[in-house]
Amino acid sequence: MSLSLKDIQSARQRIAPCIRRTPLSPSATLSERLKTNIYVKLEMFQKTGSFKVRGAFNKALSLKPEERERGIVAVSGGNHGQAVAYVARALGLRSLVLMPESTPRNYVDATRGYGAETKFASSAAAAFSEVAEFERQGWVYIHPFDDPLVMAGQGTVGLEILEDVPQVTDIVISIGGGGFAGGVATAVKSLKPAVRIWGVETEGADCMAKSLAAGKVETLEAITSIARTLGAPAPSEATLALAQQYLEGVTVVPDSEAMSSLLFLLERLKVLSEPAASCTLAAAERLRDKFAPERHVVLVLCGGNFTVADLAKLAPA
Length: 317
Known about the structure:
The chain folds into two domains: 5-51 and 147-314, Rossmann fold; 53-141, Rossmann fold. The chain is 48% helix and 15% strand. It contains 14 helices and ten strands. The protein has helices at residues 5-15, 28-34, 52-61, 65-70, 79-91, 105-113, 124-136, 148-164, 179-191, 207-214, 237-246, 255-269, 275-286, 308-314; strands at 24-26, 37-41, 72-75, 95-100, 117-121, 140-141, 170-174, 196-202, 247-253, 296-300. The strands form two sheets. Strands 1-2-10-7-8-9 form a six-stranded mixed sheet, with helices on both faces. Strands 5-4-3-6 form a four-stranded parallel sheet, with helices on both faces. Strand 3 (72-75), helix 5 and strand 4 (95-100) form a beta-alpha-beta unit. Helix 3 (52-61) crosses helix 5. The radius of gyration is 18 Å and the shape is globular. The protein starts with a helix and ends with a helix.
């Protein structure tokens, strides 16, 4: 599987009429806290609340007419399912999303609200195994990360970062299956190779960190982190290769630090992220010795699909 800067630039032209160009802002509060220049890419304000529509639109808009008629199917217990459902509604396609039974109700309701049919499996692994049957029936599968068109769409975030902060030296980005980080890293490193890309996972959703340590794809037996939208059981061979090529490393933080960072971002920046996004701040705290005062560090807040009920349940007393 190949992914190039040209692929990402083409994706940007293709999806531009369909997505938001999300804001990127400097943060005096975070800059003072970390003693460097900190910026936040507010991708949580993207349509459906996460970056996922970028890749889903790029894949769907690339389909042939006869493929569009068949409908699109996805596997997701979170943001990817909502994105595929939204894209299908926008383009007049039918959609089906296979979900683990443990999927939070707000994700199920949002996915159905965009018009998708939902089907439940016992686990994420079971849902992934079932999708092949729907492909045999003619549905077009939009993989959450292991697809060059999906990764190219996600990589358009990198192009926006370089335009808004041309002096950027470091990017801190979340990893689920690795397609988002791989796409952004491909875009950024192709244009500005000196920029350092720092991956982040949470304990219990750390398949990329384990795979990098092993030098091969490792599969988690279960996802135990509260950061459910980081819940890929394993990276793919392609996303692992991109991580090996481009990432400085992957910092794994506990859920408690992701939640503390979430509350700090809510109190001080007035944005409610999800733990899969706020973990970038938690990682930056751990990496602070890597960031000299003259660095320019972008934290990507990739999603904001976290409910007030979640906050009340998970926030420390």
